[in-house]
Q: What sequence folds into this?
């Protein structure tokens, strides 16, 4: 048996965290990044969201585009995809004047915004470089880059972009770059994929579709499934207390939990790989939430043994291990 | 609101329950004897089951088998299907159709290309509004996080059509021999840029991309007029908007954003619906009744504490929303133990909601 999910993720150069909007990708990415950094690794957490939120989860000032040191081996950066593409292109154009003209031209702008897959190439190249060499800002190389993937479109379009572009563009610097990145992202030793979901119907549906697309388009599986926001298990604890309001709470808790369990059962029927379950927590401060979830990563995880369900339905019993 | 307004648009960020609410309002509307249509995006499997419409609802509006005086039809939209359908309608000939369908970008990206779903929705709305076959239409909007992409689609497309960039994307890049044409009109640096494109990105890439854009030429042409019509329809006083929000405080910025955008665009926002509110259990009421085993109470403490916290979180969120968006009626929908996934529970929800909506 492999080690814990964190042991496994920390062996990768790039960890891509993906899932439907609002399921907790950013919070999970931050918890994973912290846990990996605690394995004595240098970690860069990359956020690609103009609403910049990850700094709040780690109690540091906003990144404003640059790398911010969080301490304990962890850095973060909020990256604009266009910034990464521009960097990639201007590196190829050795003459500064030409580079400036090209980057300012209307046609480059059109291509960068509308040319399918180009921004994604820029992003992946940036992340790969950060794990390979020292940046112009004299930071790195990082042992692992954790990428909180942009929520637009399907998460798989980021990872599938290099192959798509390389199929269409066979030559030239961009074509070669696309081919290099295509083999990078399909290398399970270098790039890990984490799929985050809630145990609710729509997110689970999307997580399963994502998994199928990963297999079909990239010939690979996710390395970890994170099920977030679970109501606590009941396990026969349903004695009414007679306290006012409690009956409503009990009823809601019981029903939401059983909906969660039905979805967990659907997940375990379709996916036998490593899985971590995160509870819904009574934490309103992002920093405390991330710290609490990070703790859970040391707890039990589902390592892909055959799912054994208890009589009442869904809780997988076999295959849970402690790291 | 039911029956009074021919078009009701349900907006809000992804995952807040727009689709369910739109469907349940549709049922309530049909229950009053109207001929009603629900247009929805990415419905969940269970909702599709509940409405008992199959995949044919992707091609045309399909009847929902509900009992009652009126009629409810449902129309399901997804990007790929509507895209295919558009190409079938607009491609000038069979060869062009085959070329578009064979375009690699089309095959892989038509489902995720930014703005496409909104664009398609505008087309579909135009079609339906033109036909005028319904008393009332409930329009669920595509899942976007923080933008009114759908409502902005007509204006954006109009701007795009006028922008100098478009001719570049839609340019005939290649001559009959498949060679890159001289790029006159790109200004002083045209030649250098052409060389750059060729060297860096490769002519093949450009060919596929430009073919992709070009294939929509026939579409762009009528679109300007259609987009203008739709824009007029959306801001007409007989089109009303419902803004759906999640309950927690972290959702407030999204709701404020939507409300502001609607106001700026001159749309008519009728009410804010706060969905999935946890019950407020009061804090500290933990003394169990006499005769209840204290151990069993202690064993449940984590779950009860969580639910109390969720109730408190949502209460604060609703309070804050009320004070920030006080000019609109605020309608509270509780977190239901079971998602409403059959016609009866959807209708019950819709009827309750309809009763609270302003006239
Ligand atoms: N396990 C949890 N318990 C309680 N609250 C949570 C949990 N996970 C996430 N949240 C809360 O849910 C909200 C959404 O989380 P987050 O921003 O991480 O989602 P996301 O998937 O990154 O969203 P987006 O797609 O918008 O980027 C946040 O307010 C976060 O604090
Ligand atoms: Mg996020």
A:
């Amino acid at each position: 048996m492999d080690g814990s999910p964190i042991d496994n993720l920390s062996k990768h150069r790039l960890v891509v965290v993906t899932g439907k909007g609002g399921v907790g990708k950013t919070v999970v990415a931050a918890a994973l990044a912290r846990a990996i950094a605690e394995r004595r690794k240098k970690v860069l957490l990359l956020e690609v969201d103009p609403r910049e939120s990850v700094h709040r989860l780690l109690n540091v000032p906003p990144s404003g585009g640059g790398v911010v040191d969080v301490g304990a081996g962890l850095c973060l950066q909020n990256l604009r995809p266009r910034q990464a593409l521009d960097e990639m292109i201007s590196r190829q154009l050795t003459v500064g004047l030409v580079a400036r003209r090209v980057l300012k031209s209307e046609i480059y702008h059109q291509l960068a915004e509308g040319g399918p897959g180009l921004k994604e190439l820029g992003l992946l190249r940036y992340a790969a470089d950060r794990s390979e060499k020292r940046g112009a800002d004299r930071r790195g190389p990082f042992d692992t880059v954790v990428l909180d993937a942009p929520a637009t479109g399907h998460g798989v379009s980021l990872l599938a972009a290099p192959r798509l572009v390389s199929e269409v563009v066979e030559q030239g610097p961009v074509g070669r770059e696309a081919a290099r990145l295509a083999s990078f992202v399909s290398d399970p030793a270098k790039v890990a994929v984490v799929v985050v979901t809630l145990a609710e119907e729509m997110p689970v549906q999307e997580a399963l579709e994502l998994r199928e697309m990963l297999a079909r388009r990239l010939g690979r599986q996710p390395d970890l499934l994170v099920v977030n926001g679970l109501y606590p298990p009941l396990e026969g604890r349903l004695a009414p207390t007679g306290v006012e309001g409690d009956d409503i709470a009990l009823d809601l808790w019981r029903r939401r939990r059983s909906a969660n369990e039905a979805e967990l059962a659907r997940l375990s029927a379709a996916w036998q790989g490593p899985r971590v379950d995160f509870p819904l927590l009574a934490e309103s401060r992002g920093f405390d939430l991330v710290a609490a979830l990070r703790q859970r990563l040391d707890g039990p995880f589902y390592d892909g043994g055959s799912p054994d369900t208890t009589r009442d339905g869904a809780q997988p019993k076999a295959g849970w291990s402690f790291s | 609101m039911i029956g009074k307004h021919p078009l009701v648009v349900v907006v809000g960020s992804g995952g807040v329950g727009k689709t369910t609410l739109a469907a349940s309002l549709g049922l309530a509307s049909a229950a009053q004897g109207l001929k009603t249509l629900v247009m929805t995006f990415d419905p969940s499997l269970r909702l599709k089951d509940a409405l008992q419409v199959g995949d044919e609802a992707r091609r045309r509006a399909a009847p929902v088998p509900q009992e009652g005086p009126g009629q409810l039809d449902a129309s399901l939209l997804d990007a790929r299907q509507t895209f295919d359908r558009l190409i079938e309608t607009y491609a000038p000939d069979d060869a062009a159709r085959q070329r578009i369908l064979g375009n690699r970008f089309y095959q892989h990206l038509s489902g995720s290309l930014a703005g496409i779903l909104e664009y398609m929705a505008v087309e579909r709305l135009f079609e339906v509004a033109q036909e005028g076959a319904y008393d009332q239409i409930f329009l669920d909007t595509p899942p976007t996080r923080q933008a009114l992409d759908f409502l902005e689609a007509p204006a954006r497309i109009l701007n795009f059509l006028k922008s100098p960039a478009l001719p570049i994307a839609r340019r005939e890049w290649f001559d009959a021999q498949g060679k890159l044409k001289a790029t006159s009109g790109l200004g002083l640096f045209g030649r250098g840029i052409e060389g750059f494109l060729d060297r860096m990105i490769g002519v093949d890439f450009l060919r596929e991309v430009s073919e992709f854009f070009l294939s929509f030429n026939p579409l762009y042409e009528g679109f300007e007029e259609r987009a203008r019509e739709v824009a007029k329809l959306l801001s007409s006083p007989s089109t009303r908007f419902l803004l759906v929000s999640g309950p927690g405080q972290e959702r407030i910025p999204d709701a404020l954003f939507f409300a502001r955008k609607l106001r700026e665009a001159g749309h008519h926002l009728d009410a804010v619906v706060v969905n999935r509110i946890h019950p407020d259990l009061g804090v500290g009421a933990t003394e169990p009744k006499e005769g209840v085993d204290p151990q069993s109470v202690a064993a449940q403490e984590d779950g009860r504490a969580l639910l109390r916290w969720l109730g408190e979180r949502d209460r604060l969120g609703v309070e804050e929303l009320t004070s920030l968006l006080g000019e609109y009626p605020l309608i509270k929908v509780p977190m239901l133990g079971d998602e409403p996934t059959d016609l009866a529970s959807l209708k019950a929800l819709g009827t309750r909601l309809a009763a609270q909506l302003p006239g």
Remarks:
- Chain B has 15 helices and eight strands.
- The radius of gyration of chain B is 25 Å.
